Amino acid sequence: MNNNLNCFYKSSGKSPGFSLIELMVVVAIIGILATVSVVAYSGYISSSKKTTMRSLMQAVALAESEWYAETGSYLTNSEDETCNPSNAAIETINENLFEDEDVIPDDLGWTMCVASAAGGGSFQIFAEKDNGDPTEDVMCLNRNGTIREGGECS
Question: What is the pTM of this model?
Answer without folding.
Answer: 0.77
